[in-house]
Design goal:
The complex is a heterodimer of chains A (266) and B (179). Chain A is of the alpha/beta class. Chain A contains eight helices and ten strands. Chain B is an all-alpha fold. Chain B is 85% helix and 0% strand. Classes of the chains: A alpha/beta (266), B mainly alpha (179). Chain A binds chain B through residues 55-57, 74-77, 79-81, 83, 85, 87, 89-92, 100-101, 104-105, 135-137, 155, and chain B through 77-78, 80-81, 83-87, 91, 95-96, 99-100, 102, 174-179.
Chain lengths: 266, 179
């Protein structure tokens, strides 16, 4: 039985002149529709490379990715990405940033009025309708990331790829956005692949946490299932035994068995 | 100007164009504008189009070079966004490339305008008959040193105003892009 998203035997070797370095080795992962997967590992282990391969922005040296029965070989709106640094176009307003994606993806299948409504609906989902005509430089980092999420959701992706979406935000804003993502996830039942280096974030948001070993030649070390019921409440989870157990398992993996190599810290 | 931007986009976007054309540009760029004047006079047989040609040949190099730098410096993130939403060719050019490179294009234009003003005043001295350059030369021949000083101030101020006009236009058009 084939899964919704399959990452099969993915190998990645970067070659630069005479030197080549094997970053990923034998990555295998099956993701079901509607699942929320976190990819966690120390910095430099190749998490982002995995995401970029799924996104189609990078081509794997070996193996491949199959989404909904089709092989991935180029980037596309069915695998929309929320980039770490939001990547909004600074010369466009909030509305126009989302509109650029919507017009490009649904230019043929939706009328102008439908697209307009769709843009507003997505911006409403992330509570950004108050700043439609502001430029990215006029809104806060958290708001930019909201717009980035709205833009990605507006493409109606089969998989939503989040590349350390909250990494650049302060702790309070991050918590708020995590709650929003959970709410949206309950509402839309998206399939999500998220990169993070935050254990709490991973446990709170995910159905499964995929942990990568340290590079070079990183591979999947362990997968933790997080059997917590949804919707999850941050405050209630603090002393939930299942939460504590998952968190401990992740921490053990990251800091005992696969402690960051001295060179890769930072 | 359009030719400059077009060529700049070409060598900024495609490395083969860069490799092939850049040495040619670097050679042509160092030819002083006035050295083109006799050739263009011979070609056009008239001072007016020759002057325009001299302006063109002076202004085009900084525009080409700045545009190509601007296009090469489009952040990877913007390119990735375009790839994910399948924004290609003409739409990519208008929606991403041009706005992202606009600040560079305008600094090229500013340099170009300044250089053309230098070249055209000098050209007027040589060609004669019209313009502030001719006025300066004429004043020299009539030993009117005070007129020359006045004319120099005038040339400087016009140059300054031209620069400000381009800078201001650039500021309006590239609003937000630099942020």
């Amino acid at each position: 039985m084939s899964s919704y998203l399959q990452i099969e035997n993915v190998d990645m070797t970067f070659t630069k002149g005479q030197k080549s370095s094997n970053v990923l080795r034998n990555i295998n992962l099956k993701v079901e529709r509607g699942e929320f997967i976190s990819l966690i590992g120390h910095s430099g282990c190749g998490k982002s490379t995995v995401l970029n391969i799924v996104a189609g922005l990078l081509k794997a040296s070996g193996g491949g990715v199959i989404l909904d029965g089709k092989e991935v070989n180029e980037p596309g709106p069915d695998r929309s990405v929320v980039f770490q640094n939001h990547s909004l176009l600074p010369w466009l307003t909030v509305y126009e940033n989302v509109a650029l994606a919507v017009d490009e993806v649904f230019g043929r299948s939706k009328t102008k009025a439908e697209r307009h409504d769709w843009i507003l609906k997505n911006l409403e989902l992330v509570h950004m309708t108050h700043a439609l005509h502001k430029r990215p430089s006029e809104i806060s980092g958290g708001m930019k990331q909201r717009v980035g999420i709205a833009r990605a959701l507006a493409m109606e992706p089969k998989v939503l790829l989040l590349d350390e979406p909250f990494g650049a935000l302060d702790a309070l804003t991050r918590a708020k956005l995590q709650d929003e993502v959970m709410r949206i996830q309950v509402e839309l039942q998206n399939t999500i692949l998220m990169i993070t280096h935050d254990v709490d974030e991973a446990v709170l948001l995910s159905d499964r946490i995929v942990m990568l070993t340290n590079g070079p030649s990183a591979t999947i070390g362990e997968i933790i299932h997080v059997p917590l019921a949804r919707p999850r409440m941050r405050v209630d989870l603090v002393d939930d035994p299942v939460y504590i157990q998952c968190r401990a398992a992740a921490l053990k993996f990251l800091y005992e068995r696969h402690a960051a190599p001295a060179t890769a810290v930072g | 100007m359009l030719a400059g931007i077009a060529l700049g986009v070409l060598i900024g976007q495609f490395s083969w164009a860069m490799k092939g054309l850049d040495p040619i540009f670097q050679v042509l760029r160092t030819v002083p504008p006035l050295a083109w004047l006799p050739l263009s006079l011979a070609g056009f047989q008239d001072s007016h189009p020759s002057a325009i040609f001299v302006i063109f040949i002076t202004a085009i190099w900084p525009i080409i070079i700045n545009t190509s730098v601007g296009v090469r410096n489009i952040p990877e993130d913007y390119r990735n966004v375009a790839r994910v939403i399948h924004l290609k060719n003409v739409r990519y050019f208008w929606k991403i490339m041009l706005p992202a490179a606009a600040p560079y294009i305008f600094s090229g234009l500013r340099i170009g305008v300044g250089l053309s003003w230098l070249a055209i005043v000098a050209a007027e001295m040589l060609v004669g008959g019209v313009g502030i350059g001719f006025f300066i030369w004429d004043a020299w021949n009539s030993s009117l040193i005070s007129d020359i000083i006045l004319a120099l101030i005038y040339v400087g101020i016009i140059g300054f105003i031209l620069d400000r006009i381009v800078a201001y236009t650039g500021k309006i058009i590239t609003r937000g892009a630099a942020a």
